[in-house]
């Protein structure tokens, strides 16, 4: 019989943004103050206020070790529903095609991820197709423009140590541009700071940055402090949705056609997701 073991994934690379040391891990990109030793970083959540939102879920990764004596369960990242079983997350959350991945909501509903679409190189976005489109009735819609400096947005994510989602209010400090992770360019990303002392932690990567029902960004990087305390003014990095909207709409259109062919009938339309084509700044 297999036993289940929850674990966090390890640290891999460094970047710097505005004087903060950021660290990329398979569970997400996390960060620490420069005075904190990098080998003392652990995935913890700073917010303990539950938010029940049917539009978000956790990505859970299950991998059978080579000796097949133990099954490891890794609580990885956050995913956000775009409708009819399509979810969007951060590309860096998905590290192996040989792992079994599932979408799990706070009420226990789950679906297996059957296909992954990766955005172009340097864009930290991925679209997930699941085998159960019915697990979530609510979904985010796509934006008509990029976020602007001083916009106040909401970030929601499933931190790795919690069984529920939590939120942080963030303010945009820099508009959409390219940022660098060592030699690797992170395209079409923007920076925010926390408006209150609620901020992101490991496991929140892939979480939606949104205004009302429009998802304007996906969380890519955020700070982690040793005591897991909140901090107002904490810097975070997110990947913008709008520059990749045409790519997302192509996936939606293709899925719509597949479902129409397999079901012999039309499916419910995606709200605000199939308007005129938009030029991409890629």
From TrEMBL:
Pfam families: Trypsin
GO molecular function, one term: serine-type endopeptidase activity
Signal peptide: none
Spans traversing the lipid bilayer: none
Domain Peptidase S1: 75-235
UniProt GO BP: proteolysis
Stored SUPFAM superfamilies: Trypsin-like serine proteases
Protein name: Peptidase S1 domain-containing protein
Organism from which the protein derives: Corynebacterium rouxii
